[in-house]
Amino acid sequence: MATDVQVPTLGESITEGTLAQWLKKPGEAVAEDEPIASLETDKVAVEVPSPVAGVLAEQLVKEGDTVAVGAVIARVDAGASAAAAPATPAAGDEAVAEASTNPSGAGETPALRDVPEPEPEDDKITTMSPAVRRAVLEYHVDPSKIRGTGKDGRLTKDDVIAAAEAQKNAPEAPPQAAAPQSLVTPAKAGAQPEQNLGSRLRGNDEVGSRKEERVKMSRLRQTIARRLKDAQNTAAMLTTFNDVDMSAVIDARARYKDLFEKKHGIRLGFMGFFVKACALAAKDVPSVNASLEGPEGNQEIVYHNYLDVSVAVSAPKGLVVPVVRNADAMSFAEIEKTIADYGKRAKEGTLTMDEMTGGTFTISNGGVFGSLLSTPIINPPQSAVLGMHRIEERPVARDGQVVIRPMMYLALSYDHRIIDGREAVTFLVRVKEAIEDPTRLLIDL
User: Fold this and answer.
1) What are the φ and ψ backbone dihedral angles of 173, each rounded to 5 degrees?
2) Tens of pLDDT, residues 272-313
3) What Å distances lie between residue 19 and 64, 224, 252, 410, CA to CA?
4) CA–CA gap between residue 41 and residue 352 (Å, rounded)
5) Dist. CA 139–CA 150, nearest whole Å
6) Would the pLDDT of 84 be above 60?
7) Are the CB atoms for 418 and 292 separated by under 8 Å?
8) From the candidates 230, 258, 354, 420, which is the catalytic residue?
9) Alpha-carbon dihedral angle through residues 96, 98, 99, 103, given to the nearest 10 degrees
10) Model confidence over 397-444: pLDDT tens digits?
11) In this predicted model, what pLDDT tens digit does every residue of 158-178 receive, in sequence order?
12) Burial class for 33, CB neighbours closer than 10 Å (0-12, 13-18, 19+)
């Protein structure tokens, strides 16, 4: 008996999503509650589980299609075995077949329109789903050199991401000497030079090449763009700066990192210090931890007696901000464990909607990417965001002497409708004092 697979509830105010990837093909056995598809919403990726154990009988939508909450996207034959299942092509395979038989490009995903058909002898390439192809396009990797971990050795999106990370961290190979021109075989007239799929996806690297790639903007990226632009258009946003001597924190980490990791099973990072420092500073300047809510002309300032910190985390598809709740009441170890878990699951795309909702204050650490200085944008309806930056040794004056210290610039962007300049500067000074003298964090000063 066939059982419908419906799009689950995706969160408050979210009525639809995009089917990003099929995780199972028709004819494959599925267990009850086993994910069979991945949906991309405005905020997170959501897996769609099978309601029963059996065999995936058919897929009713293709990868890239928009689906509403409650829509039926597949059917599962409950209790059936994989051997008895129909061997119908997956929606993703149909899309590949359509691309190969539709030279005009009509109806294709824009990102795949100019991608030549892969070499038939490479099984990994011919079985790539559109989602994996998009990942190959985005990360500029050669799929023929990646070991697939999916069924029958197929490539998955995670395989592509892992290969891209390894490629980024690998040392550059020494340049090879160019082959003598007399040994280069001239191409036949009208013949196309042989290239692997990775090269074709990246485009011709020869001098004078002007190829372009078109990749559809993801829902997450569109949401990020809309919210950031709304913040700029709505809030009276201003940024104030300060710098902080990181010597005391660096010394504390060096002194206690081994004991901390041995006891708590997590490394002692910088974020714990800054979260605690912001919690301490927010007690003196509560407006930084406030929100402006209500319609224009009838707005209210909501002051929070708790600190839920939205921590900006980089994910493959854009910036996400999971929330560390009640951060003011958490220990260093609890803060570090929570943030490490969020960072891991952001890359895997498994953050939940509840973990992405709320937040009274945001911390963004651009320093991990090498940023020296920036003006972060507020995350509405919050009233402020703290930007951390890279640590670098700089000459500073101490007691009439020029000394070298590890310094970091701090930036606080705030909504001037709620926070006065005096309050913003006071907040930054309190954070600076706590970081330069971490003892303040222990005795609440």
Assistant:
1) -75, 145
2) 999 999 999 999 999 999 998 888 778 889 999 999 999 988
3) 5, 19, 47, 40
4) 11
5) 19
6) no
7) yes
8) 420
9) 160
10) 999 999 999 999 999 999 999 999 999 999 999 999 999 999 888 877
11) 788 888 878 777 665 554 544
12) exposed
Residue appearing with tokens 């920036």: 374
Tokens of 240: 């104030």
| Side chain identity at residue 2, one-letter code | A
Residue among 88, 116, 89 at smallest CA distance from 100: 116
Phi, psi for 256 (deg, rounded to 5): -115, 0
- Chain length of the chain: 445
Tell me if residue 304 is catalytic.
Answer: no
130-139 helix and 91-101 helix, angle to the nearest 10 degrees: 70
The pLDDT of residue 432: 96
Measure CA of the first residue to CA of the last residue in the chain; give whole Å.
Answer: 67
- The residues, ordered by sequence, that sit 6+ positions from 351 with a Cβ below 8 Å of its Cβ are 44, 320, 322, 342, 345
The token duo for 340 is 């490490």
Residue showing tokens 């011709």: 204
Please confirm, yes or no, whether 416 is among the known catalytic residues: yes
Which one of the listed residues 65, 230, 354, 416 is annotated catalytic? 416
Return the residue matching tokens 């039926």. 72
pLDDT at residue 12, rounded to an integer: 58
Structure tokens at 16: 């639809």
- The candidate with the shortest Cα–Cα distance to 160, out of 125, 110, 115, is 125
CA distance 178 to 343: 43
